[in-house]
Design brief:
Layout: H1 2-23, H2 34-41, E1 67-70, H3 71-74, E2 93-95, E3 105-108, E4 111-114, E5 121-124, E6 127-128, E7 146-153, E8 167-173, E9 181-187, E10 191-198, E11 207-218, E12 227-241, E13 244-258, E14 263-264, H4 265-270, E15 281-298, E16 301-318, E17 330-354, E18 357-380, E19 387-412, E20 415-432, E21 438-441, E22 445-458, E23 463-474, H5 480-483, E24 490-504, E25 507-524, E26 531-550, E27 554-569, E28 571-572, E29 575-576, E30 588-596, E31 601-611, E32 627-638, E33 644-651, E34 659-664, E35 668-672, E36 677-685
């Protein structure tokens, strides 16, 4: 514990030293330097635009295969859940569980359970959404208020540590608005949404404000699938001086749902609209707040500080098929999770020249404390949502401290070198209330993760070669991280290289190859029940994407991804899976989109999606079924300033029967995909 307190003290002392050294001597910014003028001329990110920690190193993503989506890319589309946004990137497979507000999942770089597990770090405006088990609820994201989305593949960014084995997903909301945006949406299964994103005009130019309100309801495709959610947010920015401003943000979220559960093979074949029972469902309440302070030290440097916190409650009833159970027997569970978390951080950003060459630098530190209570009760067959015995009740307190730095330097005209590293420290305690409040402490973990990349560009960056290396980690999940005395973090290392080309204004393409090696994966000993760091896997893959631009507003997009994900050293009890394919990962995904997107008049698009089958079990005895679908949209923009748009979306145009999610082995269970479904949308920008 002494080491822990010393680290906390060092953290706060470091913050105040940085504050005094960098801010106190500087009361105003001087004249614009040559470097700043050149940077502005090149139309790259300017320091006065940097409002989120480390945003200046977004340019470092050019040395990776990361996908950056703008508001224009993600709005005016129909999503089953907001997580569907990430399917606009190559190599992504979505698992829509369709269990109401229960978080959906995606696989990336051969890791499953991203967002519904511990393999992807997910952030909203710099606030980590991952809980102590990795679960991250992206349902709180309102796509219409999003300014951009960064999907980073693999552990290559120094900004992200815990949960970033497959990479990171960062949502950034709008900082300011030039007009108000309203959307009204209605369609299949009595689905409706009203959405408003805008800002109040004020006479005082020192104030900026953005607000958003979203209300959503659907009856759902299956029985017992009602889902209601409400999302509201507000951000107020005040410009104290030309060099200092601050933003206060608040967000509230409420979600209530019934859920169909997962149906079996016979039910899926006979009537996929049916539910397992009327017991399943849940709800969530969350309130969050965030304070950002930004200080322009010089034309080339800026200091950012953030403090944030959120409080949430989550409850869920889950019960499977009870046809073989008797009344009063225990089956399924009721879960109640109460979580309070807060964090703070400070980062220094530099964007200028050293030795006549451009340098981008971000360095910072973060602290986070989570306080979680988890309870589970048995559910009784035949009594709807009646609680039985409590079988789980514990508190977790987890504290995280990290230090990170990343520099992007233009070594020579066409060559940039990116070097980064981060240090993460974890400590925590678990109190088990069912064992007389027994307390167990996590073995303190101190982890160093180096990063690096190269970017080589020619012909005004119309041809770019990139390569990167990133080392990441994964902690032991669940209560074992606290109750098991000896364990080490799992290691993840990614090697990635690729080429981007835009030889003509009407064509661009990218080809990426990667390898992800994991070692020290935790496997459970069936006799002792403890986890050992002996597992190893290899994930090799390629991703390709091309874009054609025709006429003035026509386009064709195509992407293809293939992955070979293999257990090198893996076993469970007496069963060995060496050489087997990792389960739940489709080896091939394909997306094609043909569209015409004019600023006024008629437009539309067709989108084709294909996903191959995947193994349902470690022994590779059972597989899912491959599927493909086509979605279509037609829209019309009109008005004096083209401020109105009406759109008609058809999901699954040819009414293909498929499963969004399959699990099990000999006894398969299904979450059916949507059949042909039609939605109408009106948007007004005023």
């Amino acid at each position: 514990m002494g080491k822990y307190y010393r680290l906390i003290s060092c953290y706060f002392i470091s913050f105040f030293v940085v504050f005094l050294v960098l801010i106190a001597p500087t009361v105003s910014a001087g004249d614009e330097t040559k470097a700043a003028k050149e940077i502005a001329k090149k139309k790259v990110i300017k320091l006065d635009d940097v409002v989120v920690r480390g945003e200046v190193i977004s340019k470092d993503l050019d040395a990776t295969s990361a996908t950056v989506l703008t508001n224009e890319d993600i709005t005016s589309r129909v999503y089953i859940t907001p997580l569907d946004i990430v399917k606009l990137s190559p190599g992504i497979s979505i698992k829509q569980y369709k269990q109401g507000g229960t978080a959906a999942s995606f696989s990336m770089r051969g890791f499953t359970g991203c967002s519904h597990g511990s393999n992807a770090a997910i952030y909203l405006d710099g606030i980590p959404l991952n809980e102590t088990d990795g679960y991250a609820d992206t349902n709180i994201v309102n796509p219409d208020e999003i300014e951009r989305v960064e999907l980073i593949k693999g552990p290559v960014s120094a900004l992200y540590g815990n949960y970033a084995s497959a990479g990171a997903l960062a949502f950034y909301t709008k900082k300011r608005v030039d007009f108000n945006h309203m959307k009204l949406h209605y369609g299949a299964y009595n689905t409706y949404e009203a959405n408003l994103v805008g800002g109040f005009s004020t006479e005082d130019e020192k104030w900026d404000n953005v607000y958003s309100i979203q209300t959503y309801h659907t009856d759902g495709y299956q029985d017992d699938s009602d889902w209601d959610k409400f999302n509201a947010a507000a951000r107020f920015t005040y410009h104290f001086t030309d060099v200092m401003d601050g933003t206060f943000s608040v967000r509230g979220f409420n979600s209530d749902w019934d859920a169909p559960g997962y149906i079996n093979q016979e039910e899926y074949d006979r009537d996929p609209t049916q539910s397992v029972s009327n017991v399943n469902g849940g709800g969530k309440d969350q309130v969050a707040a965030k304070l950002d302070l930004r200080y322009q030290i010089t034309d080339e440097s800026k200091l950012l500080f953030q403090f944030w916190s959120y409080d949430q409650e989550f409850w869920r009833w889950y019960q499977g098929d009870t046809s073989t159970k008797t009344e009063g027997e225990s089956s399924g569970n009721e879960r109640f999770f109460d979580r309070f978390v807060w964090g703070s951080g400070v980062s220094y950003n530099f964007l200028g020249e050293i030795g006549g060459r451009e340098l981008r630098l971000t360095a910072g530190t973060d602290y986070m404390k989570e306080d979680v209570n988890r309870q589970r009760y048995c559910l009784m067959v035949g009594y709807d949502r009646t609680r039985g015995d409590k079988y789980e009740d514990y508190d977790i307190v987890l504290e995280t401290i990290d230090l990170y730095a990343e520099a992007n330097y233009q070594v020579i005209g066409p060559l940039r070198v990116i070097l980064g590293a981060r240090y993460d420290h974890f400590s925590g305690d678990l109190t088990d209330h069912l064992l007389n409040d027994r307390k167990d402490s996590m073995k303190n973990q101190d982890i160093f993760s180096p990063k690096g990349g190269l970017l080589l560009g020619f012909w005004d960056d119309r041809l770019e070669f990139f390569a990167n290396y990133g080392k990441g980690f994964a902690l032991l999940q669940g209560t074992a991280a606290f109750t098991q005395e000896a364990w080490d973090p799992q290691e993840r290392i990614q090697y990635e290289g690729g080429v981007r080309a835009r030889p003509f204004d009407w064509f661009s393409g990218q080809l990426t190859g990667f390898r992800v090696k994991t070692t020290k994966d935790t496997l459970r000993d069936r006799v002792t029940g403890e986890y050992e760091n002996i597992g190893e896997t290899t994930r090799d893959g390629i991703e390709a994407a091309i874009d054609f631009y025709a006429f003035d507003y026509g386009y064709l997009h195509a992407d293809y991804a293939y992955i070979d994900a293999t257990y090198d050293k893996y076993h469970s009890g007496d069963d060995t899976y060496d050489g087997k394919t990792i389960k739940s990962i489709p080896d091939t995904t394909v997306n094609l989109e043909l569209g015409y997107n004019p600023p006024e008049g008629l437009g539309g698009r067709l989108r084709y999606q294909y996903e191959s089958e995947y193994y349902l079990d470690n022994a590779n005895d059972y597989t899912s079924k491959a599927w493909d679908t086509i979605d279509a949209q037609a829209f019309y923009r009109f008005g004096h300033k083209n401020e109105y748009m009406i759109a008609l979306d058809v999901i699954n145009l040819f009414d293909e029967k498929y499963a969004d999610y399959m699990s099990g082995g000999a006894q398969k269970t299904y979450s059916p995909g949507l059949p042909l479904s039609v939605y109408a949308t009106l948007t007004v920008d005023f």
